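note to self — DONT lose this again. spent like an hour looking for the file last time. sequence + predicted structure for the chain T wanted, 237 res
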Amino acid sequence: MMRNKTIRAALLLLIMPLAALKAQQNTVSGLTAGEFDKYWRVESESPDYKVSFAGDTVEIVAPKGLTLWRRAKMSGDVTIEYDACVVVGGAGDRLSDLNCFWMASDPESPDDLWARAGWRSGIFARCYTLRLYYVGYGGNHNRTTRFRRYDGNEAGVRDKAKRPAILREYTDTARLLKPNHWYHIRLETRGGRVRYTIDGQTLVDYLDPEPLREGWFGFRTTLSRTRLANFRYEESR
């Protein structure tokens, strides 16, 4: 009996650090110069993108389409939070596209989002091959804010008629981008309900009849200079 207790205690000592590490990874932003490559992966349409760091804040200059993927796959009920800002004031800056993908996966390789990363290459139309939730905040030169649910239909890459429907859209100034403003963004998928909240205002509250239960997060932008900080997420099953 004493031997069994000793074995159980030893196993707990092994398990507890792993659980602690898991929790720590969820709350580590990974947006510092030293941690960036461990936690994030860039898919860029242009090789001339730039990434720079100031503490736990990353600045991304995207001359074309770019997705910054969090390397961790998330599952169950997921809450994601982060701060983001579109920077305007320098040559070439454009106020547009503070966008995001979440619960993203590739139906052709559901356990490996990177299998076709080279083919996607940051090209927005090729992301229609993925299943995901998408918000384009201040898209189309800051004229629209839209929510869609992508179904992974590859026909959508070339045929606009096969692309997913716009499930929610705003065009009023109050729900478009402000220059140099730090937004706090919260994404939730819980029990089939999908929410997108920005600066405390919920813009999307959607009950998905076929909810996406696992996948990756990606920050998405194009032709912009943006900053990200304070990324974290929680999972529950």
